Amino acid sequence: MKYLAGRLGTLLAVVAVIGLLPWLTRTDPARTILHARYADRAPTPETLAAIRAETGLDGGPLPVLGDWLGGLLRGDLGESWVSGQPVAPDAVAALGNSLTLMGVSLAAAVLLALALSAGTLRRGAARRIVRVRAGAGAAVLAALPEFLLAAVLATVLAVHLGWFPALGWGAPGQLVLPALAMGVPAGALLGRLLDDALPGAFAEPWARAAAASGIPGRTVARHALRRTLPGLLPQLGLVAVGLTGGAVTVETLYAIPGLGGTALAAALAQDLPVLQAAVLLLLLLGVAAGLASRLAVRVLLGPALTDRALPALVAPRLPRRRALTVAALALGALLVAVIAAGLLRDPLHVDTAARLAGPSAAHPFGTDNLGRDVLARLGHGAARTALAAVAVGAVTLALGLLLGALRAGALTETVNALPAVLAGLVVAGIAGPGPQGAAAAVAAVAWAPLAAHTAALYAQEKAAPHLAAAAALGADRAHLLRRHVLPGILPPVARHALLRVPAVALALGFLGLGTQAPAPEWGRMLSENMPYAERAPWAVLAPAAALAVLGALAVLTSAAVRGSTPAGPKGRK
User: Fold this and answer.
1) How many C-beta neighbours within 10 Å does residue 263 have?
2) Partner of 415 at 20 to 30 A CA spacing, among 147, 321, 367, 503?
3) Which of 338, 351, 479, 462 is nearest to 407 (CA)?
């Protein structure tokens, strides 16, 4: 009951904040509602006053919230301020569409995650894990923006090859492309995390004893997978909820009437009843997913978690491959060379005669929709994009570690359930536009997966027998945290944070809330040129490739450093 009470309290608090959105952002929703209803009608004081009286806005925020909560207790989600129709039927139908798309996308993500970790499962079962693996391929796939992948799949597989429908909803074939667009980045992220945890499971005594006893490798691999799943199940729950509410761009591109798109459209139109209903359904889904993952962890671990009899997962000390260092240096040199070449060019020069021109000697990476040199904008936007992403990534890592250690599960699930675009609009509306507002908007939501990862690992570390032994020998809490708990939590969570750096960089610019145009930024380059992706793919592929290289470089560097340092302090061996 305490678990559910905390989450329902947080849920109602967030919905209340959503209800206060017009007052928090200091906007006049009456004007937005008037434009949505009657685009040509002048916003006269009389007309605006009539809309405020009709919607209850003239009484202030408390009556609006009171009326909504009173209707909620009666099972009534209210009526749309824009259409005047009941909210519940459309919201429930949109939720059903989003859940269907989420289920197929999650299946694709799980299959890809298993495929990416199949090599480690095979080598671990045969006792042949002898080198550190980087997982650069998974990092590249995880860095691919969903909207870019969706556009490429629609252009190639739907328009040019005609294998699948390009738009629409309802037929099984219309699920394939959006599910792949959403499932591939999510599956790459899950696969990388799984691949990172498996060597620790195969290094445990039971795995060595099983292999020495002649137990089939398939059985050993299955048990290793079960051993690592408790640390990853919270991530799977977060991914499921994120795929339901965060697929705004994919739903828009494929004309899918889902809940994420409904929430964003309602936020832009200041249609609070629809927005509150959509957010409420997403938050309830987040609570259900969190409860399901919590129960699944208990089933997998059994009494070992509560009896403090769960050995800590410790990655074996593996030598690094020289190829990892060489690849990291080569990739870094390539990125620096491209940036240096771009810095020698003018990123603001507009050549209208060369709009969307292809790559040439004059413009090696082509030009964008205004005729600006893509290479120049890529180079001049590198420092702004990378430094801001690393800074925000460091903040989210610190927040994730702190809130995960404090077991702020209710807050984590609630924040993750909010569509990132919607949360960005809310936070940036309160904090104001500009780099600080964009950083606050991204940091406000990006910590949740890291906190869930931290909390899962923290629970297992606290259940390790060696922790009880150290405490019995007189170790205080600070010593236990510094020498035993943090060494098991910090490395995998830090590698997780590095894997998310490209997504942070993309969000900072793509939200359009950071450094204002015409200043170059990789995320803004993508958003500005997406409408021209089919005609001028170079204008979109260049920043997307830069983000993918940034992700690959992060994991290659992490793997090279990991292979040259010990696995942890002696107390954890």
Assistant:
1) 27
2) 147
3) 462
Q: Which residue has the tokens 């080569």?
A: 330
Determine the Cα–Cα distance for residues 18 and 271; give it in Å rounded to an integer.
11
Query: What angle (nearest 5°) sits at the alpha carbon of residue 466, between those of residues 461 and 471?
Result: 95
pLDDT, tens digit, 9 for 90 and up, residues 368-377: 888 899 999 9
Query: Is a pLDDT exceeding 80 seen at residue 408?
Result: no
Question: Please, are residues 445 and 416 in contact by the beta-carbon 8 Å criterion?
Answer: yes
- Give me the phi and psi of 78, to 5 degrees please: 90, -175
Lookup: tokens for 557: 């560097």
- Which distant-in-sequence residues (6+ apart) come within 8 Å of 39 by Cβ? none
CA 409 remoteness from chain centre? 17
Tell me how long the chain is. Answer: 573
pTM confidence score: 0.80
Query: What letter does residue 159 receive in the DSSP assignment?
Result: I
Neighbour-count burial of 371, counting CB atoms closer than 10 A to its CB (0-12 exposed, 13-18 middle, 19+ buried): middle
* Of residues 391, 500, 496, the one with CA closest to residue 453: 496
The whole-angstrom distance between residue 342's C-alpha and the CA centroid of its chain comes to 30
Torsion of the alpha carbons at 491, 492, 498 and 502, rounded to the nearest 10: -170
Contact by Cβ (8 Å): 58, 52:
yes
